[in-house]
Design brief:
Chain lengths: 410, 410
Amino acid sequence: MLRVQKYGGSSVASADHIRRVAARIARERRAGHDLVVVVSAMGQTTDQLIELSRSISRNPAPREMDLLLSTGELVSGALLAMALREHGLGAVSLSGFQAGIRTDTDFSRARITQIEPGRLHDEIGRGNIVIVAGFQGTTDDLEVTTLGRGGSDTTAVALAAALRAPVCEIYTDVDGVHTADPRIVPAARRLIDISYEEMLEMASEGAKVMHNRAVELGWVYDVPILVASSLTDDSGGTRIHGGTLMENRNKVRGIAHDAGIARVTLLGVPDRPGIAAQVFSPLADAGISVDIIVQNAGRHGMSDVSFTVTRADLPATLERMRAIREDIGAADVTADDNLAKVSIIGAGLTNAPGYAGAMFRALRDAAINIEMITTAEISLTCVVHQDRVDDAVRALHRAFSLETPDDMPR
Amino acid sequence: MLRVQKYGGSSVASADHIRRVAARIARERRAGHDLVVVVSAMGQTTDQLIELSRSISRNPAPREMDLLLSTGELVSGALLAMALREHGLGAVSLSGFQAGIRTDTDFSRARITQIEPGRLHDEIGRGNIVIVAGFQGTTDDLEVTTLGRGGSDTTAVALAAALRAPVCEIYTDVDGVHTADPRIVPAARRLIDISYEEMLEMASEGAKVMHNRAVELGWVYDVPILVASSLTDDSGGTRIHGGTLMENRNKVRGIAHDAGIARVTLLGVPDRPGIAAQVFSPLADAGISVDIIVQNAGRHGMSDVSFTVTRADLPATLERMRAIREDIGAADVTADDNLAKVSIIGAGLTNAPGYAGAMFRALRDAAINIEMITTAEISLTCVVHQDRVDDAVRALHRAFSLETPDDMPR
């Protein structure tokens, strides 16, 4: 069976780590599997290269930045191939270019446009374990690009799709996706499986297990993704897939949270067409992402508009809002930079009765005030004060009985 | 004017160094020159990568080693391009592959087979300063190769030849080629010019200023090479070229030396055809380079054969000689591992009368015993005891009046 695996930076952080990963891969090779292995750069390499570049230029050219950063994965790839050859196995490491990974020209966050798998098939046919430098590709003009943070996950899923592997295995330093952050909820359980859609909500809401783009790609190409720990050999991990999840339909699967949220409110905005564009266009132009937007019903033709941004973006956001306040005729601009989001996630939740009520009751019983509420297809999110978010996660985990196993092995 | 320059590892050893090199290049760009700049890896990067690989494999696959080592020059190249853009100048860094440097498949010591200069011309035409990662290229199968130690010099000379630059400028941490090692002879002078041929002798005899392959390539393609310091802005340096050097013909240009020599002697070897092959073939097979070979005239059909190897190769050499001693009928094998070479270098020397005698007299007057003598077209070499080699260099530098300027600026 062809297996496509990815090992993250913490799994190849040192020569010792690389030897350990090699031993693991060697066992799987000896069990008869063909293997294509995507690697990230060793440990903090990428951050160190970024730091080095910043000491030379505060705003380095993205093209040069990508060429610079692409070296980290070349190093870990070559070392892993060497370590595998110490086991007497054929192994070859390929750059993104050599592995046929073609991208658009959007440096530092390029998207894969195509995989030319000729060389990959050749090397597999020769009996080699193929190591592929993650996070990178080349444009049609042979420029080196990187795929942005978490890009090695995307490389792995794209290769699994191109090579029609039955699953893409992502090995990392956590053992899967949990019902909540185990640092906050000791009783949090690992989920045995989760749908792409739910995983996207879990990730964007703060469960930083893998990169959303990779999950989306898996969804589009219907590649199941196994997220598991590289440190253990058990058959654990969480399987992300597009199954119907009948057993889990209409159930809360997990609690996500995201601290570091700021809310901006425009008070007394006249109710007239075009206001939203006037408010949010300058933010988009400045590259500021707006998350939750809430507009209260108008009274006397006036309404209040609230939205959230990351705390880091708050000063720039306020500057732009104050610049347009008079133009749009808002009475005032206020801000609160001490908020957090907490969400319950589950396919079909918002169409099922009772979940919103149960969520609000749980927060009330814990004496936690709700600042904003927003709903999506598979999630319900409340904004609360930052200093109560851990309590909120624990209260919701308990309220929806997530400590009790209900996953069915598939 | 198109200038091709190369900056060595010590010139780009840190972010500060890179900024300094960038300032220098920026001035030359503003003076109206087109520039193609070859860089080595930062400082000790290559050695660190080698060490990392050795911690994983004692005998890493050359293909993987080359992919690994090629990253060092990609990093310094990208950083230098960033530093140049801080000066408001267009700059782009290219990998060996992107710069069109094609090589044979001899990993770790590949030879350049061809330069495809299309991209280089394009970038120059766009007004960009082109930074090229030295020391690397790709095969026709798109495998990454390295050119061996000192390979960045070779890259620079090859690019100067392909782009028809009037000169190849090699910037390093010394200010040129000297009449002798200045650490031994304080009165040693920088040579203003030197022929390719003399430079090859100076280099192979121990004046480690630049890589011999690069000098040979310059000779073949008639590319003059300027070796100068990257730390000063004066018009110094040594020009290596194919001029007739009329002024300097039949003069000693410099004193080279090489410590760490070992001599092996086979005593009482029967004088019969095929003996030399029997002695030296096993050494060639073992990758041991033999330097000086001296065979004494036979007496009673017997002769003594002496040859030198590096001290590091002595144990392996002795092992092989003892293995064949009986076969070839030699009486004994002896060794002396405490020797050094000292040479006088100059075009036409050996055809001119008097130099050998003057050399031997100078050593005699300094009470230095000569162990072996060998002559080449443009050099005379004596092997002496290691603890007297510095004295020998000083005595010869004085005897041939090398402290007195005689170079004519060209």
